[in-house]
Amino acid sequence: KVTEMCDGQAVLESTSLMRSFQATVSSDVSVGDHAALVIRPEHVALRVSEDGLSAKVIERVFLGEIEAVRIQLADNSKFWSRTMAANRVTSDDGLVVDWDNARARIVPFD
User: d(Cα 99, Cα 70) in Å, to the nearest integer?
Assistant: First the structure.
């Protein structure tokens, strides 16, 4: 649910992940609306860290020099990350997902 908006940015509150996300917002979203945070797969980064959104790899697809990785978060939401295969993370231990907020968008979601 969108909780704040200012200067083309919005804050999206995720009750299932118990955290909020800030990103550029679509013009057809208002405070109080249900919305989704969208990020292109090539802008989702996987790394090992103690700080971040915990994730688990549930599928890997090798596409030559690119690897597509299907990720599951603690709330069971799933999405894809795409990265160069040479930069792959080989362990789920301490795996987190991250992205640059400038690459994320908040859009309407019914």
Answer: 15
Summarize pLDDT for 42-60 with one digit per residue, the tens.
Answer: 999 888 887 788 999 999 8
What's the start-to-end Cα distance of the chain, in Å?
Answer: 11
| Residue 51 neighbours by CB distance under 10 Å | 8
Q: Which residues have C-beta within 8 Å of that of residue 37, sequence separation ≥ 6?
A: 12, 14, 21, 23, 104, 105, 106
* Inter-CA distances, 36 with 10, 24, 97, Å: 11, 12, 17
